[in-house]
Amino acid sequence: MTTKPGAAAQTRSERSDTRSLVLNGELLIYGVIDPYLWDEFDTSVRAIDVMASLAELSAEDTINVRINSPGGSVIEGLAIYNALTAWGKPIRVQVDAMAASIASIIAMAGDEIIMAENATLMIHDPWAVAVGGAEDFRAMANEIDRQKAILINIYAAKTGLKVEEIGALMSAETYMSAGDAVERGFATAVAEAMRTAACARLSNDQLARLLVAPIKLRAERPSPAAPAAQPQETTMVDPVPGGGTPAAAPPVPPAPAPVPVDTAAVRAEAVRLERERTTGILAQARSARIPADDPFVVNLLSGDRALVDARTDIMDEWSRRQEARPDNPPGDPRPSGIVVNADGVDRWVQGAERGLMIRAGLVKPEDADRGNEFVGLTLAELARSALTMRGVRNGHRDRMSMVGLAFTTMNAGPGYHSSSDFGNIIQNVAYRAMMRGYEEVDESFPLWTGKGTASDFRPIARVDLGLFPALDKVEEGAEYKYGTIADTGTTVQIATYGKVFAITRQAIINDDLGFFDRVPRRMGRAAKRTIGNLVYAIINGNPTMQDGTALFHANHGNLAGSGAAISVTSVGAAEAAMGVQKDEAGIGTSAGVVPKFMLVPITLKMAANTIMTAANTPGDGAQIANPVRGLATVVADSRLTGTAWYMAADPAQTDTIEVTYLDGVEEPFMDQREGWSVDGTEFKVRMDAGVKALHWRGLYKNAGA
């Protein structure tokens, strides 16, 4: 998918090495965005060149990027955009003349985007050429829609414009002046127009040669100098017959002058070799998952280690780090180092879910992600984005049908059943809101009740372990005797409690975030209150126990003979009554059952706290020390009414009331299904739990006065 003009084919082996795009300390993105260089004077901008140039600018506090590009390859442009945004330093973008198509996406990487007064920014739909049958064209159309959604999200995150508005601008192929771009949020400021005189010294051809010079040294190497003239050996001349004068020896030609060394070429060659070494080290380090700013890589780059030796060093370092991994215990095979990363859809789901949580107020302000591109999307826009991410065309649909389609588009292939991405996001955020409400409820019953676990919904017998006050003496060589474990016949059984609520398509279109704050949150609170209601219903209802007698009864020794207000005397009587309790075998202990909690209505909370905290006996003028001070922790609850008050033992010491959960899971469960009776999606919140009074020994009641 590209706007690159046609060019001759080139094999991969003919691709040149990386080149520097840095000029005067700035990164120049001048030319077509293309992953290939088609000839030695090609000014195309590649992502690999941008990455190498960023490494060259690693000492700069701010990366200055100048853009003049008509666009090009979408994928290559996204790679450049990601490289800039991931660099970790402020990016200052200057659009000198044109930032069109994918080049406008690259411009969005800037923290500052400054356009020259006479510069232009253009956005439009991606396009491509397809060859084949109908399915091939459909597949290409879906891919174009998918890529458009990616570009829309980038524009939306930078500008704050709605997805629909950006989509319309792209479909219309919109050209923007500097002022228009600033007004719409595509740029942050307008700079003075570029002066022609400032560029007059470099022609297009000269600029091309300047950019390409580091790729390949065109200057020929100097020819070796001719060898110096050797001394001539003296030759004996035969006498001339007749006594004549010998002929003169031919003159020796002078040695040729040495060819001067081209110092510029030598310097350029040295630069090329060093760039090749640096690029090779960085590439090898990336393959080994060692960051470029790692001290090990920095030392290699700053030294004079040859590339072949540096590659060996990197592999050795990789092996050393693999051996030192915490998930690689001694003696175990070393992990392969292969990491399965989330695909684009998974990352979209994570980002969209996080953005919706931020909008719904389910994330603390200090924990909110900066720059989350989904925060500015309404629920309807999020639904459309979910469809676009899945390659589902939806531009022709009205919002009502589009939202319905988002709830039903599955994230599994043909023949599989799964829930939609959008529905999953809604469910996950609703669940978090429900759990927020569940955790917010300040319930009192967990303080003084026991907790049990059931693996299914069948009745379960609870065995009374008794008090076991002492061990039997075992004589030498004698047998140990079995202790008696009484089965009181108590059974516990869990049940399911729940309700259903719905999120309609109308709520999605109206962007009603209250569903993620009010409804699920209240359902979470209701789930926890349901268990509390069951607990206090036992206290108030005084159910019949396994022996056929009411829980609080004189026969159980846990009911005061006459009601009395909370006082030192009445609390002391309760302590004494619990202290003489015995198990089914008639066994007691020296301390008996010790009360640990006092359960009172809200109206008696102050009186109970006074009795439990006063140093001296309240109302006694003799200032006698309070004998029940600190005896029990006061638990006040509005579901206890009237004047009655209660004492409860530690559930770890003796059985009182047990709350039993299915598989020990205390939190409520949320399930989702596509709405059948409602036009939207339905959520079911349920709790699987049971509450039962296991024994009367650890509980005491005074009817009060």
From TrEMBL:
Biased composition (Low complexity): 222-240
Pfam families: CLP_protease, Phage_capsid_4
Keyword Lipid metabolism in annotation: no
Any one GO biological process: protein quality control for misfolded or incompletely synthesized proteins
Gene Ontology CC terms, in alphabetical order: endopeptidase Clp complex
Family according to the record: Belongs to the peptidase S14 family.
Descriptive protein name: ATP-dependent Clp protease proteolytic subunit
